């Protein structure tokens, strides 16, 4: 069964309030690795019908801008509190997933991803500080998605409490602990 793009509802994502979780992946954002992929895909598609980058340039660019907007949503000084509530359109989540699938295919050695692999190898070795591997790029994006896609009843409890600026009773505190346990299990610094 195939889904219809945009058919999923938008999410109210609960993000860690400290910036470390997204700083680890900020190199993917605007003027970062995904933006480079967007530029390369645009240049490639201008010269050929079948791009070796597997996704349209706009998909990579949207993913880069989404990462950048997440980084901007969490104050760098960590004064946001324990969590930040961030509305996320479902189509942006789908875009991030599309990019992650290309990265995972690249890591697996899919021959259709050779062009992506070659560019990423150069970028993450020579342009990203500290240097990373293509596997680490995929892992970093996957951790971002783990935060955004966290779908526990506890997420709704905390999101509601933050949105309505409610008193943090024991139920909200317990829900927050469940969320942080899930973040920890996914390897997210918070």
Walk me through the structure:
- This protein is mostly helical and 190 residues long.
- The protein has one domain.
- The protein is 57% helix and 6% strand.
- The chain has eight helices and two strands.
- It has helices at 20-23, 33-47, 57-73, 90-107, 114-126, 134-148, 153-163, 170-185; strands at 11-16, 83-88.
- A two-stranded antiparallel ribbon has the order 1-2.
- The longest helix has 18 residues, at 90-107.
First and last CA, distance:
36 Å
What is the radius of gyration computed over CA atoms, rounded to a whole number of angstroms? 18 Å
% residues in beta strands: 5-15%
In terms of per-residue confidence, which ranges show pLDDT below 50 for 5 or more consecutive residues? none
* Percentage of residues in helical conformation: 55-70%
Sum up the overall morphology in one term: elongated
Q: Order the strands across the largest sheet as they lie in space.
A: 1-2
Q: How many structural domains can be distinguished in the coordinates?
A: 1
Query: Average pLDDT across residues?
Result: 89
Pattern of helices and strands: EHHHEHHHHH
Number of DSSP-assigned strands = 2
Largest sheet: 2 strands, antiparallel
Structural class of the helix and strand makeup? Answer: mainly alpha
> Count of helices?
8
């Amino acid at each position: 069964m195939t889904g219809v793009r945009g058919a999923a509802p938008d999410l109210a994502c609960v993000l860690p309030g400290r910036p470390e979780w997204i700083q680890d992946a900020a190199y993917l954002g605007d003027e970062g690795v995904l933006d480079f992929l967007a530029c390369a895909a645009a240049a490639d598609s201008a010269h050929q019908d079948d791009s070796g980058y597997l996704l349209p340039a706009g998909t990579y660019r949207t993913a880069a801008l989404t990462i950048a907007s997440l980084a901007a949503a969490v104050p760098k000084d960590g004064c946001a509190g324990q969590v930040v509530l961030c509305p996320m359109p479902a189509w942006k989540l789908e875009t991030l997933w599309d990019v992650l699938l290309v990265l995972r295919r690249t890591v697996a050695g899919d021959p259709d991803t050779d062009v992506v692999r070659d560019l990423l190898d150069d970028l993450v070795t020579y342009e990203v500080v500290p240097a990373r591997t293509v596997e680490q790029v995929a892992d970093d994006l996957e951790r971002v998605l783990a935060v955004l896609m966290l779908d526990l009843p506890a997420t709704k409890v905390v999101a509601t409490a933050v949105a309505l600026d409610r008193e943090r009773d024991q139920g909200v505190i317990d829900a927050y602990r469940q969320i942080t346990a899930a973040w920890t299990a996914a390897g997210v610094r918070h």
